[in-house]
Design goal:
Number of strands: 2
Helix content: over 70%
Number of domains: 1
Strand order of the largest sheet: 1-2
Structural class: mainly alpha
Oligomer: single chain
């Protein structure tokens, strides 16, 4: 009789083990799918950026991505809204159908965004008669 109880207990333990294993596998599968979906969206966003930015602007943005990740993230947030991410497949379809974008965002616009994010204000430098450089405001007040 004790052997029968022992077999039942083993059977129940095996059922619990299988149930836990199945739950663990489902969780891993969901994480993998989420990772693939995020990776896919990232690739699609890069594709759209490559299409809408001038080649030099895109390469400059890629340099910013590696050298100054926080600035890149701010530019990314400025360029890529939640609407863009939500309609990314539609945007890609339009880009592919039209064969590209007629007017691309130039490098100057990206540089302007970088300067805006960093808080860099433009300065106009004036060369004085003695060869020294000074900003325009100081030159005009003298």
């Amino acid at each position: 009789m004790s052997e029968h109880n022992n077999n039942e207990e083993q059977h129940e333990l095996e059922k619990i083990r299988l149930k836990k294993m199945k739950a663990l596998m489902e969780t891993q599968n969901q994480q993998k799918q989420m990772h693939e979906r995020v990776h896919s969206i990232t690739e699609k966003v890069v594709y759209v950026l490559r299409a809408v930015l001038a080649p030099d602007a895109f390469s400059y943005l890629e340099k910013i991505k590696t050298s100054e990740p926080m600035v890149y993230q701010a530019i990314y947030n400025e360029l890529i809204s939640s609407d863009v991410v939500a309609n990314i497949d539609y945007l890609i379809a339009i880009i592919n159908r039209q064969g590209g974008i007629p007017r691309r965002i130039p490098l100057d616009a990206i540089i302007h965004l970088v300067r805006k994010i960093k808080g860099i204000k433009g300065k106009i430098q004036v060369k004085k008669g003695d060869g020294k450089m000074m900003d325009l405001g100081s030159f005009l007040t003298k």
